Amino acid sequence: MARKALGPRLTPSKAKNLLGVAKVVGPVLIPVLAPFAAKAAGLVSDQYDQYRARRLGVGIEDLTKYTGKGARLHARIAGFAQALDELRAKDADYVAETESRLVKLAAAVRASERMPTPRRKAAHRAVSADLDVLENDLLRRLGVS
Q1: Is the pLDDT of residue 142 over 70?
Q2: Which of 4, 11, 34, 58 lies most in the core, judged by the most C-beta atoms within 10 Å?
């Protein structure tokens, strides 16, 4: 009685029967389920791409431009460069100076990709802090407090 309380056991003959059923049913189910599995995989991939694009602050079409450990910083630098275009007519000297700084920051992010993790993270923190200062200055010049 104690054995029945534990539930059905998988015996060698039951396992053999299950394998036989799987051999018969498997070839029928796989072609039926494959399109659903492919569609589900595509949906998951699209959702993940949308999530990554939102995190980077870029459109999905631009997602492939920003890869690697410094993707977020590269996206920030590109967005900042686009924002500078609005200020180009008012203050060309500031824009030229800032664009030069952005080129250096982008080079630093690219160089940090091959660094050991602690050094890369330190470089990314330094670039991020520098971008924070530049962004605050840009906002001040645009009249946004």
Answers
A1: yes
A2: 58
Q: Which two tokens stand for residue 3?
A: 């054995």
Token look-up 């394998």 returns 19
> Would you state the structure tokens that stand for residue 9, as one six-digit string?
């056991």
Dihedral (CA of 64, 70, 76, 80) sign: negative
Distance CA 113, CA 117 (A): 9
Domain residue limits, the chain: 12-54, 66-142
| pLDDT tens profile 97-141 | 999 999 999 999 999 999 999 999 999 999 999 999 999 998 888
Side chain identity at residue 48, one-letter code: Y
Q: Tokens 């500078």 label which residue?
A: 84
Contacts of 131 by beta carbon, 8 Å cutoff, 6+ apart: 73, 76, 77, 80, 105
* Global model pTM greater than 0.85: no
